[in-house]
């Protein structure tokens, strides 16, 4: 007789972006199967933008995800500019990175305080924490507001920025706004440091300890940053962004509208901790000190370290944005936009979205998109995430199912998955 | 509705989660929260239940799987008031851009011959399946749209639609006209106002993310004539107008008038 096992399921994981679930099947002697079900519908972004005018496609791509719409916009714009053979001026590049950092600050603050922290504080969600954790909620909103405001000013709004276009910006804010941005960033620094201190105290769950391959962008300009033209793996291998398909393979799994990816036949991780693992030597300022003092917690073997790594990045990117603003201010007044001639070509951009490596490969023919391949951080992470959920399940399958669900959800949350992003789709 | 707590639910279909994020990011939420009880809001609340009765159901996202058809029906049964939030829920979203292509073709291009165990379908607006009481427009909606809608519902009143185009706000703001003075394909003349002409204020053409003003008011034909004079082809014009209006029943018919292809 065939054994019938009832799955332990979380149909809809709360406090993540997008719709996904966990399904764990426990049988005689242990965990039989673990699946991350990605149930959000497919949106076919690559397919629907094929044959479309380049500028219209660039307006649609950020709609893949709201938590990282600036990341999508700026990566798509860079891929398009590479395709048509245009290189933006340094000051435009600096201001784009400031806009991108706005997204990083907002996204990390939301993830850490509103999505992750309630688990540790014993709440089902942040709305219940308002009375007891006033200070933390205030810091969360202040940091989030700062990031949103940076995106409002430089990108036209905090979600789906239209003011980042081929050749630069539609319009740039007044110099006084940029100076105010610098002041606000300085004021925010202690709040970011408080966040880091807070997260150093949280449980790391050794159940999921083990070797992890981390992949991150190799930053340009010898400073820990967002843009880069090479990818770097923690096994020491580096390769040009254009060669991503030779090193990373994508495939469809039947329980998910999002594809899985492997590097050299193995699952791998991307995200804040992967950036630190690969590029910590490029940190500077206060963030470098904090990193040196907490290396033991920021280790490469535990996905929960991603939370603390994000907190460290809040500190780092605030300082980085101040430096980039100084760089731009030195060249003020800045012409917002250059004319871009739309020629035929192919371009690949790899950047560090809040959740990790984001790849856009675009081919342009006759002013239209003739090939599009987008791989998002969550799609890269899904296979590894499933592995870590399995490790957690194997240690706790005989516990109370509610506790098992809670722990596995926490593993998923540590990755800060962006499920809408992952359901995007790439050509095979 | 004053005095007692109003039960609300925020439900997601297929979307980028931007409408919920916009809502979650409002500081004003701290003032609203004491007046409401959240029955369902997976993005922020683990204790969320999709099948509990609520006074106000806010739905974002387009209906993009067979499973989501069942979900919207269930939400409708359990809710006194249903609000469709954002361009996906109201107009089917950008994922409807190629709605006339067969689903199989899009699927094949993205997933090849692989199958998954869920049932995908072409994206559609929520009102194709259930009665929607109110709509909040935008991709994403402006914060004031959300505050206005929830605020009016919470005091027992009802939100009213804006029935004039982005151009009105653009003129009031004193922007250079992106369409007439810069020659760009701005959709401001047919797009529902409420964003304070955000993009034209940055010198960028409107892409119509708030959707067209009501079907009998939007002058797709008139704008198509202006675009045609600027050298755009019929297909160019339709593509641009469809980005956020793919399910609009009047769009093609009105554009066809300009190109002499009225179907009887």
From TrEMBL, chain A:
NCBIfam families in alphabetical order: sulfhyd_HydA (NF040832)
PANTHER family assigned: COENZYME F420 HYDROGENASE, SUBUNIT ALPHA, CYTOSOLIC NIFE-HYDROGENASE, ALPHA SUBUNIT
Any Pfam family: NiFeSe_Hases
Cofactor requirement: Ni(2+); Fe cation
Transmembrane parts of this sequence: none
Domain of life where this protein originates: Archaea
GO molecular function, one term: nickel cation binding
Binding residue positions for Fe cation: 68, 421
Keyword vocabulary terms for this entry: Iron, Magnesium, Metal-binding, Nickel, Oxidoreductase
Protein name per its UniProtKB record: Sulfhydrogenase 1 subunit alpha
Binding site for Ni(2+): 65, 68, 418
Residue positions binding Mg(2+): 46, 374, 424
Automatic annotation (TrEMBL), chain B:
Domain of life: Archaea
Alphabetically ordered keywords of this record: Oxidoreductase
GO molecular function: iron-sulfur cluster binding; oxidoreductase activity
The NADH:ubiquinone oxidoreductase-like 20kDa subunit domain, residue ranges: 16-151
Record's keyword annotation contains Oxidoreductase: yes
PANTHER family recorded: COENZYME F420-REDUCING HYDROGENASE, GAMMA SUBUNIT, CYTOSOLIC NIFE-HYDROGENASE, DELTA SUBUNIT
Entry protein name: Sulfhydrogenase 1 subunit delta
Organism whose genome encodes this protein: Thermococcus profundus
